[in-house]
UniProtKB/TrEMBL annotation:
Catalytic residues as annotated in Swiss-Prot or TrEMBL: H107, D110
Cofactor or coenzyme needed: Mg(2+)
Official protein name in the record: Xylose isomerase
The protein's enzyme class: isomerase
Alphabetical keyword list: Carbohydrate metabolism, Cytoplasm, Isomerase, Magnesium, Metal-binding, Xylose metabolism
UniProt-annotated location(s): Cytoplasm
Residues bound to Mg(2+) 2: E274, H277, D313, D315
Length: 442
């Protein structure tokens, strides 16, 4: 991948990040992520489809509820809206190509500032999309997914598609239409719906059934519009249980699958799972992955991690090798991502203020995923991990157990077998043994 700079260079002194192997002491090098190395029948680059998220990396200014921006970006300097958006895009493509990241993801409002005027917004988005097209062509960087931000503007305080006010819903539709147009124009491979405020704060003022029906109808219309306009990619729903609303309708993977099934959306929609959303729902990320894999719906992931002490979405860069090795075992056994990849929905900390910090964060994230994939592949190939799990269910492989699985036994027959076979011997689940096995391969 060629480095694509604009007129200004924003990350001066940093060259393209190279793979130098695990013994390298260079903090600006990959130690495990080797894009052309084949793992599980694909190059690492193809397997992961790593993506940089525009919002955290080029808009996220470090502000929090207690204080303003700590990241003051040189690409935000111009007072002209299109110049500012182009400068930001120059910075984005410079960073992405220096990192050798093959994909990026955006919300409409990440690319260019929006107003309250639908026509003006459409014009602005179309202008910056033209520029993005040039940048993509020059660099070879591709769009993993696009989305619309239907949660930041004050009009969405009670939701977008689930808003009790129809007029608000129409603005959500206008934004989604334009974001779909942008995604299609840029060859986007997928489109994401994250329902930030599609939920409720109090049931006292909420007709939950009606709101969910509106959401389903809205998703159908978006899908029909995109298909009509040639979009062949996958739609993803990104589950999250809470934050910003108290209770979101896309609570977790199982809830979303039930929703998609109920409203006849299962054919076109898959899941985009995020680590910190899983933990907020009281699950492990591994659990959410397994739910999606078992349904044949693992589309993509948003990579990050939460914090053991905080109960909110801290969106930190991933660095937990055990969590990711266990996750990669599930992803590998499940056949990988369907259409999607690994988007870093993660932000550097408020006090990470050097230009290099964005590089360290992404290098660390890509390396930890690569290391987890390599480890998981070895565990599956040359350890007894699979065998131990399979043997746990051996009593269903033959005889009466197999008859039960095939539906050939009645409840009375099961009762008779209990009498005949007597009290079972305890069988160990071997959890600590398996945990040690994972650590041995790490
Ligand atoms: C918010 C979140 C979003 C989605 C896209 O928690 O994850 O950034 O990924 O709207
Ligand atoms: Co996300």
């Amino acid at each position: 991948m060629n480095i694509i700079k604009g007129q200004k260079e924003f990350f001066k002194g940093i060259e393209q990040i190279q793979f130098e192997g695990r013994d390298s002491k260079n903090p600006l090098a990959f130690r495990y992520y080797n894009p052309k190395q084949i793992v599980a029948g694909k190059t690492m680059e193809e397997y992961f489809k790593f993506a940089c998220s525009y919002w955290h990396s080029f808009n996220g200014d470090g502000s929090d509820p207690f204080g303003g921006r700590t990241h003051v970006f040189p690409w935000d300097a111009s007072s002209d809206v299109l110049t500012r958006a182009k400068d930001k895009m120059d910075a984005a493509f410079e960073f992405i190509t220096k990192m050798n990241i093959p994909y990026y993801c955006f919300h409409d409002v990440d690319l260019i500032d929006y107003t309250d005027d639908v026509l003006e917004n459409e014009k602005r988005l179309a202008a910056i999309v033209d520029y993005a097209k040039e940048k993509q062509q020059a660099s070879g960087v591709k769009l993993l997914w696009g989305t619309a931000n239907l949660f930041s503007h004050r009009r969405y305080m009670n939701g977008a598609a689930t808003n009790p006010d129809f007029q608000v819903l129409t603005h959500g539709a206008a934004q989604v239409k334009a974001a779909l147009d942008a995604t299609i124009a840029l060859g986007g491979e997928n489109y994401v719906f994250w329902g930030g405020r599609e939920g409720y704060m109090s049931l006292l003022n909420t007709n939950m059934k009606r709101e969910q029906e509106h959401l389903a109808k809205f998703l159908h219309l978006a899908k029909d519009y995109a298909r009509k306009n040639g979009f062949k990619g996958t739609f993803f729903i990104e589950p999250k249980p809470c934050e910003p609303t108290k209770h979101q309708y896309d609570y977790d993977a199982a809830t979303v699958l039930g929703f998609l099934r109920q409203y006849d959306l299962l054919e076109d929609f898959k899941l985009n799972l995020e680590v910190n959303h899983a933990t907020l729902a009281g699950h492990t990320f591994q659990h959410e992955l397994q739910v999606a894999v078992d349904a044949g719906k693992l589309g993509s992931i948003d990579a990050n991690r939460g914090d053991y002490q905080n109960g909110w979405d801290t969106d930190q860069f991933p660095n937990d090798i055990n969590e990711l090795t266990e996750s990669m075992l599930i992803i590998l056994e499940g056949g990988g991502f369907q259409g999607g990849g690994v988007n870093f929905d993660a932000k550097i900390r408020r006090n990470s203020t050097d230009p290099q910090d964005l590089f360290y964060a992404h290098i660390g994230g890509m390396d930890i995923f690569a290391r987890a994939l390599l480890t998981a592949e070895r565990i599956l190939e040359d350890s007894e991990y699979r065998k131990i799990r399979a043997e746990r269910y051996a009593s269903f492989d033959q005889g009466s157990g197999a008859s039960f699985e095939s539906g050939a036994l009645t409840l009375e027959q099961l009762r008779d077998l209990a009498v005949e076979l007597g009290e079972p011997q305890p069988v160990s689940g071997k959890q600590e043994y398996l945990e040690n096995l994972i650590n041995r391969y790490i």
